[in-house]
TrEMBL record:
Its main location: membrane. This is UPF0344 protein E3U55_07035. The keyword Hydrolase does not apply. The chain crosses the membrane at residues 6-27, 39-59, 71-90, 102-122.
Length: 126
């Protein structure tokens, strides 16, 4: 169970790093490297979703009350965060405004981190 948590956190950290790398490659107009790295990032999106689903089904499916609700909110926020990351990258590639994407990104990352590490039982704060 603890290994699932570490795997999920590791995939998120690598995903955020890859997101920043793809963003910088797009801005430097290195399209081929950006495309390859973006595909690797999309693979990490799948790993994040699978590891998050495993965490949810192993730990929170039978939880009741506010713990269950917070796990659902964290899950939806995590998927929303992935969507915001993808939206930012696509809009930067098309040279469109990314304000809405960045706003969603900031709100969702704060929500995901505060629920994941602070409120839910597998976080670092009991």
């Amino acid at each position: 169970m603890l290994y699932n948590t570490h795997f999920h956190i590791t995939t998120w950290v690598i995903g955020i790093i890859l997101f920043l790398v793809v963003l910088s490659l797009i801005k430097k107009s290195n399209q081929k490297a950006a495309k390859i790295t973006h595909m690797v990032l999309r693979l990490f999106y799948v790993l994040i979703l699978v590891s998050g689903a495993l965490l949810y089904f192993n730990n929170y499916i039978n939880a009741g009350g506010s713990l269950f609700a917070e796990a659902i909110i964290k899950s939806v926020s995590g998927v929303w965060l992935i969507a915001a990351m993808e939206m930012i990258l696509v809009k930067v590639k098309k040279s469109k405004s990314t304000f809405a994407g960045w706003l969603q990104f900031v709100i969702m990352i704060i929500l995901v981190i505060s629920l994941g590490f602070g409120r839910l039982q597998l976080g670092i704060l009991p």
